[in-house]
Amino acid sequence: MKFASKFILSLFIVFSLVGGFLPATSYAASNPLLDSEEGIEEISIFLDGKLKILDSKSYLAINGSTYVPIKLLTQLPGISIVTKNGVTISTLNGTYKINKSNSYVFNNRTYISFELFLKISNLKGKYVSDVYSLFIWSNEDGETRSKKLINNIASVPKEIRYFMGRKVYVYEGNKIGWVSEMSNTDSSFTDVEIVLQSGKTIEATIFLESPTEFTLYQRIELLNGAYGNRYAWVKKNVISSNIPLYNIEKIYIISLKVDNKKINVTAKRSNGNKFTFSLPFSSYPQEVMYDQFYYSDPRKTHPSWSDKIWKAIQEQQIVTGMNAEQVLMSWGGADRINSHNKSNLRIEQWVYGNTYLYFYNGVLDSWND
After folding, report:
1. How much is the pTM?
2. Which residues lie below 8 Å from residue 148, measured CB to CB, with a gap of 6+?
């Protein structure tokens, strides 16, 4: 998606002058985008077979209709916009007045329905629900390219089609880009084309349903929002033994950064010392953070547990009389569990390597190595 620099500059000037076209307080009519805020879906736009990367997102509302930013019209030839006394759009096909009856404000941006957009622009297009994307074309050649993209997508496993048009994080070189094309070469491999922020295009491959070269950028963005600037308690039986923290130690997570397929965590211990450690990365980094820490004080969650039990848990020891949850908090999950019932007694054998723990009705009775 390369545009002439003069054209880009002219667009910048237009938007600087009109500030997104419509004041956010102008239209208070029933707004399907606001009404759908909890269930709204971002959608991508492809124009003449090329992905459009816009600051203003397009959306699918819960009423099943799609809405595009009015600023998309400025990227089309033969269209002029006058903002005096509201917004008037002039095209080769006529003049259109944008007002509260046919536009909506969402996140301080003005939107119109996809149907109105096609009418004003005199373009053709369709919404493809499998990939949450709008495909628009201005001529026969654009239609051919658009339909080729759509046909290629149809060959891709349904489980990964949602990557189409999405912003992604590319592991190698810590790059950011957008998936602009997908096609399935055989039953196991899907070829992916990614347009980077620099404009360069790279290729990647998805084996079956799990990309190993990139993940959704949204998952990276959510990391700090979900897990940064908050207290956490360490699960030492999960976190790497090389990280010098003890079990259920309270730390304050300051920030997180993904780099070279690692999650670098900057944190502060109770003594005030800051330090940074690395956690393994996965395509779902939130799950890594969720698995390695508690996010509420375990002692407050279980106020009835004795100091003896808490001391054993902190030192990753076990003592007779522990319940299953206490053992899990101390040692983590067993390699396997064997169980059987005898009269009113449930007997469980938890196996940790060569160590065998025996529970009677959920209480640790004994163990042997």
Report:
1. 0.76
2. 49
For residue 26, give its domain range: 5-151
260 vs 103 pLDDT, higher one: 103
- Domain-located, residue 168: yes
Q: Are 110 and 103 in contact (CB under 8 A)?
A: yes
* Contact call for residues 175 and 224 (beta carbons, < 8 A): no
d(CA 279, CA 286): 12
pLDDT at residue 9, as a whole number: 36
As a whole number of angstroms, the distance between CA 183 and CA 195 comes to 15
Residue whose token pair is 């998606």: 1
Radius of gyration (C-alpha) of the chain in whole angstroms = 28
Domain total for the chain? 4
Rounded CA separation 248/270 (Å): 12
Predicted local distance difference test score (pLDDT) of residue 37: 65
Closest CA to 113 of 78, 63, 180, 77: 63
Measured CA to CA, the distance from residue 133 to residue 223 in angstroms comes to 26
Tokens 């319940």 correspond to 323
DSSP-derived 3-state class of residue 115: helix
Q: How far is 297 from 306, CA to CA, in rounded Å?
A: 15
Which residue, 32, 191, 160, is CA-closest to 105? 32
Contact at 8 Å (CB) between 198 and 177? no
Structural domain includes residue 361: yes
DSSP 323: B
Instruction: Give the separation between CA 260 and CA 320, rounded to whole angstroms.
Output: 44
153 by DSSP, 3-state: which? helix
User: Of the residues 247, 267, 298, which one is the last residue of a structural domain?
Assistant: 298
Cα distance between residue 306 and residue 273, in whole Å? 29
Contact yes or no for 49/142 (Cβ under 8 A): yes
Q: Of 1-5, 165-169, 248-252, 364-368, which range is least confident?
A: 1-5
